[in-house]
């Protein structure tokens, strides 16, 4: 079985594109199908810190180490915690020696896309169905028609993967935590007091079983999340994010009594709000190998964002799957090896993320978060 497999990747997220780029670099043919109409069809979300042993390693192997250094914001790794009165409980503003630089998602997607031939990614292709035959080859069904046959289809299509049901009956489960996402534009120029409050990195504010997390993105933009422990339908019932004025008023009511300098974050928010209910797959999620199909990233091991590992794990998956496919003459065996290693590799970060989301907004208020931050700072100093 030395012939190269015909490979399709569903999803041009960080995981799928890392796989595509690494295979392309090794001279292997691949096609990516993405439902979005083009690269900038949707804001790609906030900032991500890429870790040396995973996200950064994947980019280096993909020949994108220098491109990464151009988009990495080493200066934005600071961390602060306030209480609702605006009292600073913790600050780690000294980022020297920390090697988890922030990158904006859009910038990350751009360097990956620019490293691929334009025709390799088929935009505006939302997968409807994958028809997997007895022999392991498959046909993909899109609104435009079908594509295939493919020998290997990689589901890199995120939390609500259309590919996952072919190998696993599990659906992501709601964690109990919901974010209302908001943004603040041109913070240094238009809101200097907020810029000073946030500093270079991210802040948390926690009290009364609620929280705010605000992180600095590139170009003077801040992305904020109001964090609630609520039933899954609560946000849809209480927030009309399509009416930002009403949604902002509702947010202000939720944080009534908090210090004016904290509420200023909500007052300054722009018109782009979104509800993000945080879901996860069970820790240790795995499946029995099935020839012709596999998963990576959130499709394989969706975890809460509190561990800050999701994108790093997705990119390392892409890199590792490519490494196995390039190294192993028997591509089905390569997929088996990738799966066996990945199932083990992601258990620890998934467990940490599950614990982090379970203890978020704990009954002891910011005390637990403070403890975690101090522990991190101690580890960094050691
Ligand atoms: C609010 C929030 C904050 C987060 N913060 C962090 C963080 O700070 N650090 C971190 O490491 N992780 C964070 N994460 C997690 C991180 O976003 C994911 O782990 C990461 O994006 C997973 O990458 P992926 O390539 O597997 O999937 P995705 O990024 O979800 O990409 C999937 C792609 O597949 C496409 N797609 C989906 N369905 C189809 C279909 N049927 N047909 C074709 N295309 C399809 C989508 O359009 C998308 O482009 C956060 C997540 C959330 C929700």
From TrEMBL:
EC number annotated for this UniProt entry: 1.14.13.-
UniProt entry tagged with the keyword Nucleotide-binding: yes
GO molecular function terms noted in the UniProt entry: monooxygenase activity
Catalysed transformations (reactions): a tetracycline + NADPH + O2 + H(+) = an 11a-hydroxytetracycline + NADP(+) + H2O
Domain FAD-binding: 7-330
Annotated signal peptide: none
Record: residues binding FAD: 49, 105, 298
Main localization, broad class: cytoplasm
Cofactor: FAD
Uppermost EC category: oxidoreductase
Alphabetically ordered keywords of this record: Cytoplasm, FAD, Flavoprotein, Monooxygenase, NADP, Nucleotide-binding, Oxidoreductase
UniProt-annotated binding residues for NADPH: 42
InterPro entries linked: FAD-bd, FAD/NAD-bd_sf, TetX_monooxygenase
Compartments, as annotated in UniProt: Cytoplasm
HAMAP family with a match to the protein in the record: TetX_monooxygenase
Self-association state and partner proteins as the record states: Monomer.
Annotated domain remarks: Consists of an N-terminal FAD-binding domain with a Rossman fold and a C-terminal substrate-binding domain.
Family label: Belongs to the aromatic-ring hydroxylase family. TetX subfamily.
Function: An FAD-requiring monooxygenase active on some tetracycline antibiotic derivatives, which leads to their inactivation. Hydroxylates carbon 11a of tetracycline and some analogs.
Protein name in the entry: Flavin-dependent monooxygenase
